Amino acid sequence: MSAIGAASRQGRLAQFGLGLLLVAAVVWSVHFLFGVFDKYRHVDAATYTFFWDRRAWLWTHLAGGALALVLGPVQFLTQWPRARGRLHRWSGRVYLVGMLVAATGATGLIATSPAPFGIRLAFAATAWAWLLTALVGLVAIGRGQVQRHRLWMTRSYLVTLAPVTFRLLLPVPGVFAVLPPPPEGIAWLLWLSWALPLALHQAGRWAWLALARRRLPLSGAVPDHGG
Ligand code: HEM
Hints:
The protein has helices at about 5-40, 45-50, 55-75, 85-110, 115-140, 145-160, 160-170, 175-180, 185-215. By secondary structure, it is an all-alpha fold. The protein has one domain (about 20-215). Helix 1 (about 5-40) runs antiparallel to helix 3 and helix 3 (about 55-75) packs antiparallel against helix 4 (about 85-110). The mean pLDDT is about 90.
């Protein structure tokens, strides 16, 4: 097989793998959202526990967060073909509004939370990572840097998935044998729920670029967009 043929097969395989990951993210997100809305539709102090006095912040947070979780995958599905450009732009704007609303709710929750400082710090770091990744993605598209925009919005979506990832990591057997016990371990898990996906994504990118450069050593056609 020629180097070009092998590279294009490798590209299709990578796309298939990423498609599967997106499907898994959608399934986990839907499962997470059903669980959340099933729980918090019972509007009483017993269900809301320590969120009861802060339920306005929680509802603000949930409304915006749900919007961002639902619209994240729409952004990936509408990036091609160009005919979907308008839909992509509009749902992207609503995704960002959802994020801002959720981040406002998160700020109110952090400010009023009885949780230990380490946990509140981890939440605040998540909020900053969320806002910063989206901001870099937004500035990139404003400058016409499409690859860089894709990269940073992918990172933003990985941070959007943090609560879903957290719920997946929490029941992993032995997780608090590796991490310190709660509450310190919860703070660690909050950091990991977005830092780990971002690190894995970056490792995947580097592996992909190294492989592509090995297959097409002379073409120089495998730029590392986005940084
Ligand atoms: C990625 C940035 C996010 C940050 C910084 C963040 C921050 C927070 C904070 C500070 C709390 C309250 C914790 C406390 O008071 O102890 C919270 C709770 C919660 N957040 Fe988020 N959140 C984020 C994303 C999301 C998203 C996208 C959703 C999806 C709807 C979501 C759903 C929830 C839920 C359901 C709770 C209540 C926790 C529970 O029932 O156990 N969050 N979040």
